């Protein structure tokens, strides 16, 4: 496949940072978007620019806040001016954990604004150009926790379940237009995600749990230690999965890809298999079999 022009959100760290580097390694043009590209993330922006200097691909740093309609529209507009967008990797996101009762309504609104509404904003901004071209790809970074549930991550899990439904629905809607939608479901990786996870800010609610209030920190702290070990899964596996999807011919991309070496991914893989079996019958009942032309 020829070099692609790819917009990546949340490029300043974690999977996004690795995805940008990996795309550049393969000769693609990348619009590496992030908040504060000229401020708090200026160092990361400079690192990515310097990295691309010795590689086959090209990096354009673009400031983008996924919670702002105007920021998203301006960023996508810049990418279009620079040459257009063949693919979008919706990667920006963060976690809120602990006891869900201690999470305020404002915290709940904000995580949905980033993890779900942010994907919607970027998708809406990029879609008209892709539909006009009759081709394009959205790779939405979900999580195994968008298919299976662990306690003490209620808000995050809720956003990823929402993202899964949003993405699958969009895939069916866009199947006739030539635009693909696919989901990557990472398991646990040492990207610093757990260390940056936010807890519920209602301390009085948390205190009312007594000694139980320590359980979430104990659980997630144990996971964090596992992910910091020398034999922990390499986050590059997720970036590699994204690259493979981008370089796979249109119409041949699977709906979901599980990347979970720590647990083996059996849970989400099993659920994905069951839904892949059920969905054709559901669509047939509504006379919409053609929308399944890209399922798999």
Average of the residue pLDDT scores: 94
Rounded to the nearest angstrom, the radius of gyration is: 19 Å
**Oligomer designation:** single chain
| Major pleated sheet | 7 strands, parallel
Principal-axes geometry comes out as globular
Explain the overall architecture:
- The structure is a single chain.
- This protein has 296 residues and is α/β, with parallel strands linked by helices.
- It is 46% helix and 14% strand.
- It contains nine helices and nine strands.
- The chain has helices at residues 14-25, 42-53, 69-81, 105-133, 154-174, 203-207, 215-227, 236-247, 266-285; strands spanning 5-8, 29-34, 58-63, 87-90, 96-97, 136-141, 179-186, 198-199, 256-259.
- The strands form two sheets. The protein has a seven-stranded parallel sheet with strand order 3-2-1-4-6-7-9, with helices on both faces. It has a two-stranded parallel ribbon with strand order 5-8.
- Helix 5 links the parallel strand 6 (136-141) and strand 7 (179-186).
- The longest helix has 29 residues, at 105-133.
- The two termini are 21 Å apart.
- 44% of the residues are buried.
- The mean pLDDT is 94.
Entry summary:
The chain has 296 residues and is α/β, with parallel strands linked by helices.
Quickly list its features.
single chain, 296 residues, alpha/beta, seven-stranded parallel sheet, two-stranded parallel sheet, 9 helices, globular
Please describe the topology of this protein:
Layout: E1 5-8, H1 14-25, E2 29-34, H2 42-53, E3 58-63, H3 69-81, E4 87-90, E5 96-97, H4 105-133, E6 136-141, H5 154-174, E7 179-186, E8 198-199, H6 203-207, H7 215-227, H8 236-247, E9 256-259, H9 266-285
Parallel strand pairs: 1-2, 1-4, 2-3, 4-6, 5-8, 6-7, 7-9
Helix pairs in contact: 1-8, 3-4, 4-5
């Amino acid at each position: 496949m020829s070099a692609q022009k790819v917009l990546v959100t949340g490029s300043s760290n974690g999977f996004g940072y690795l995805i940008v580097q990996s795309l550049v390694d393969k000769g693609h043009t990348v619009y590496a978007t992030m908040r504060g590209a000229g401020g708090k993330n200026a160092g990361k922006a400079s690192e990515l620019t310097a990295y691309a200097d010795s590689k086959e691909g090209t990096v354009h740093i673009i400031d983008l806040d996924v919670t702002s309609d105007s920021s998203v529209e301006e960023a996508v507009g810049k990418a279009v001016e620079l040459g257009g967008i063949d693919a979008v990797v919706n990667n920006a996101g963060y976690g809120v954990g602990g006891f869900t009762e201690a999470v305020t309504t404002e915290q709940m609104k904000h995580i949905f604004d980033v993890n779900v509404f942010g994907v919607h904003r970027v998708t809406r901004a990029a879609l008209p150009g892709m539909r006009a071209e009759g081709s394009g790809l959205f790779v939405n970074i979900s999580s195994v926790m968008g298919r299976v549930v662990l306690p003490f991550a209620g808000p995050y899990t809720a956003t990823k379940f929402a993202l899964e439904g949003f993405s699958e629905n969009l895939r069916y809607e866009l199947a006739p237009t030539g635009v693909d939608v696919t989901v990557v479901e990472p398991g646990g990786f040492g990207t610093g995600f757990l260390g940056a996870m936010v807890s519920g800010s209602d301390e009085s609610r948390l205190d009312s749990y007594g000694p139980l209030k320590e359980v979430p920190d104990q659980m997630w702290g144990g996971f964090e230690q596992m992910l910091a070990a020398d034999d922990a899964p390499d986050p590059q596996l997720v970036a590699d999965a994204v690259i493979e999807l981008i370089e796979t011919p249109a119409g041949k991309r699977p709906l979901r890809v599980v990347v979970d070496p720590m647990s083996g991914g059996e849970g989400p893989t099993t659920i994905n298999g069951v839904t892949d079996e059920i969905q054709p019958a559901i669509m047939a009942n509504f006379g919409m079999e053609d929308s399944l032309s890209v399922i798999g």
